[in-house]
Amino acid sequence: MRIAIKNGTIVDGTGKPAYRGDLLIDGGLICQAGGTVSGKVDETVDATGLLVTPGFIDIHRHCDIQPLINPRFGEIEGRQGITTVVAGNCGLANVPFTEQSGDDVLALVRPCLGPVTRRTTFPSYQAYIEALSKGGLSLEFGFLAGTGAIKSAVKGFSKEPFSEQELKRAVAFMHEAMDSGALGASMGIMYPPERYNCIDDYVALLRPVAEAGRIVSCHMRGESDSLVSSVAEAIEIARRTGVRFNISHFKSNGKRNWRKKIFEAVSLIDQARTNGIIMTCDFYPYAGGSTTLQSLIPPDCFMENTEATCTFLASKKGVERLRESITQRFPKWDNMVLGIGWDRVIISYIPVPEYASLAGMDFSRAAKMTGMDEAMLLATLFVKAHGDVGIVIMSMDPEDVAFVATLPYSSVISDSLYPTSGHPHPRLYGSFPAFLRTYVCEKHLLSLPEAIAKMTDMNAEKMGLSDRGTLEVGKRADVNVFALDAFHDLATYRDPCRLAEGLTLSLVGGEVVVRNDVWQESRKGSLVLAQSKA
């Protein structure tokens, strides 16, 4: 099908100045960019007064199981102009899953991935790929190999270090992931059981990624009081493994660290880059984050697995220890409650009918509503939901976020979580238009070409996707058309489930997936797999 998009302002994703001209698409590829298109076409789109950009690439979504369970997967994404997504982030994934993984993994990932059951987990990457390929995809879909999922498949939630044989099994899983086309690997050092890993573990585990020339995205050990030491640890892992290294959702949490530690952390990254280490980062355009309730449990209150932790927190002794520990600082663990306060921790998802009405409330208000103190409420929710609770944490300073947004090596992501109910973070519905609105239209911190590059070519380059991300001849025809002043995010913290609006047209591989804010329920997307080195 030949489509001509005429008279638009082309922002091609390279960061170069915008220019007026036409775009010609044929057979799913761009065959002319600029100038005037002539000759016969199947459809002409008048883009006068509109921007024409590459489709947006979100390299950090937790949509791992969504194509398998949600027939409307792609609508939330497509309405934001997202044409390619990458799952398997933060070390959290539904593959590989073995009997060793068990219910602990399900409880850990559900607040992020959604209603994961053993029917939506897979023992191998090939089995996962086959499942994704069966029903057709509404957009382009790639994945990373989660090191947390791999460790769980080998050792469960054990705090013990890898044995020699276990590490060999873990490395074998990573080799399989690279051979199967994973775009890279992801780490989640903050979460159990990865938090018990040491650098030597990663040197071995990431060797297949380095050999394949792919990227590692890392949810660091800490993003609050331990931000600087966590960045130093990340740099050391990158140095010793030789991988291309990307820090996920780079930020500084906790009031005492605002407008201070982010500069110290960036100084370390800049020095590493000067020394030849390939280090980048990504961020989302909000001052609040979202995660699982498990991240609030102090290390001395988290037992060998979720079941044991529930048993402990259901006891008087457990609650008393939690009440004491939640007021203390721990080495290599960030106490978010101590850093920002209970009133900035919002319950976003709780699958227990008895407490479902608490979704959307901060912990202080919810505690008053239930007649408990905050520590007792934390223990109660964790036990009742077996750890399966999602939270939004208002943990960042907007000036710090803006500083990260202007770094020359930072790119835009959403870090979208997919809870089954409750109040998700608004980034699920609005990250990409929110970025343009905030940093181009309101704050004027970035030029339009710079901003578009952060959502397109920079993310394509990180994932090794040379066939997309810019509007150049021969590239995939993943294209958006919209008016900048009409393209809006509508999702808020109070009302988060509102679709973005103002997207005139979005194409995936030359096929229309959104037209005038109407999602077309297309199944023209495909699985995005890395190619092995020649």
Describe this structure in words.
This protein is an alpha/beta fold and 534 residues long. Helices cover 33% and strands 18% of the residues. The strands form four sheets. Strands 1, 2, 3, 4, 5, 18, 19, 20 and 21 form a nine-stranded mixed beta sheet that branches. Strands 9-10-11-12-13-17 form a six-stranded parallel beta sheet. Helix 5 crosses helix 6 (164-180). The longest helix is centred in the first third of the chain and has 17 residues, at 164-180.
Helix-and-strand structural type: alpha/beta
How many distinct beta strands? Answer: 21
Fraction of residues in β-strands: 15-25%
What would you report as the Rg, rounded to the nearest angstrom? Answer: 22 Å
Q: Compute the separation of the termini in Å.
A: 33 Å
Shape: globular
Unreliable runs:
none
- CATH fold category name of the largest domain: TIM Barrel
Number of helices: 19
Number of domains: 3
Proportion of residues in helical segments: 25-40%
| CATH class term of the largest domain | Alpha Beta
CATH architecture of the largest domain: Alpha-Beta Barrel
Largest sheet: 9 strands, mixed
By CATH's scheme, which homologous superfamily of the largest domain applies? Metal-dependent hydrolases
Mean pLDDT: 96
